[in-house]
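Methods — Computational structure assignment.
A single polypeptide chain was analysed. Its primary sequence is given first, followed by the predicted tertiary structure written as structure tokens.
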Amino acid sequence: MFRKFCFQFHWLVGITVGLVLAVVGVSGGLLSFEQAILRHINRKVVTVIPAPGATVLAPSELLEAARSAAPGRTVVTLTLHARSDRAAVLTLAGSGPAARRGESLYVNPYTGEAQGGALRGQPFFRNVRRLHRWLLMDALTGNRDAGRQVVGASTVLLILLVISGIVLRSPGQLRSWRAWLTFSPKRKGRAFLWEMHAVVGTWVAPLYLLASLTGLYWSYEGYRNVLHRISGVPRVVRGHGPPAGGGGRGEQRPPEAPQPDPGATLDRAWALFRETVGDDYSWVMIRLPQTAATSVRLTYLDARARHDRALSRMTIDVDEALVADHDRYADRPLPVRLMGSMLPLHSASYFGVVPTALMMAAALAMPLFTVTGWMMYLQRRRQNRAARRAMQEARSEGLKEDGKTLPILYASQGGFGKTLAWQSATALQQAGQGVTVKELGRVTPAFLAGQRRVLFVVSTFGLGISPTGARPFVVQMHKTDLSNLQYGLLSLGDRRYGELYCKFGRELEIWLRDCGARPLFATVEVDDGNPDALQEWQRCLLCLKEDT
């Protein structure tokens, strides 16, 4: 019953939220290497070619260069790179729609020459991010909460889809890693669709769970609070990392007071930072003081940082010429590092470039499950319609319920076995044989013990397991006295599954023989609907007609 519920839940949720999950997955995949892509398509803006012997200008000189390039604009942050070929980035306080985000100015650190502002591609990725997080509902309705709730609910359902999918694959295959992780491209039809859906789904299941469990952090306040409570890490509002070209990508707000001249302060803070850290950094973002305070806050990325959010922070007291506070990422407790790295965990960049690429591939593959799920659903509907037509035809012949009624028990996943069972019922009824058609999972071994003859039409599903509807019977397949029973068995399978071909049908026959049952005729095995085998089954039914 539980497996049947999982099956019904899996296909119903899959075809209803599959499109949303496909959109969220593809958009997330596009964001995986956003920074690398932006750097590549804006090489002339974000990189420089230093002249031989050139030295980097002091922060105060870069600040003056920015003021010359953007007169009247307030500089909020200055970002410098350890790499000699990267431009310095100054974040200018924005206005209007850009007030929260700020605007970037890329400057040659050796000459102070402005190289450009907004990067090509940034609006595209900004919209992709809105699509990923809110399905663009902020643009359509002016309210991003509705999109956030839809994405959050779909993410929860994705977790349940992964779990139910694993449950549906688990019986009989727990010891066979090949069955779990490999598939043959030679298969066709429903078998190919099922293997693509199930095997590739198994590959990406851990990545989907990681992305889902971390993605909920931004969807539900309660979930976010629970994570912080469990980890013991208080929630802190923090800035973000650098932009694609290499500067402070933090979302800045314009200052509320006139900015003092921070040139000398910046130079002293920069000197103290270099004395403390040396060359052991990738980039450093200096937040310019917006008041007369002489303390300067810096955020930097360690040269050996495992991901771009492994940020360390430093506060320098310029008057005292000392580091007032130095919060290194590597020195934080593991729970603090994890809670501060939710986005790298979400994208798998926390674990390196290869896992990031795998997460991107998994995200971009999300439409595969939507498409294959829908195709199998439509195939199942066609088979079920054929089964209903066969059932109606059989009933139109008039079902006879008497002492000579012959049970036909079917176990079918896609509907083909059910169709054959009802077609067999029609053929027998036309010969005057009363029949009863039932799903195998609706009877018990005790029912078989009370019968004289029984016909079985059973399919092997997936990797050698019984169809979902047959599981209640399968779990009761213990030693039973069936010495008075004669049986006929039609076993459906696909020979391309090798040793798993007709596996459930063969296991059922072994159990019947072990319990003393005798065959009415040799078992008929059907390879992928082979018409010759189905004709052999019809000939076997003719023998039963003659006996009738």
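Note: Confidence is low (pLDDT under 50) at residues 247-259.
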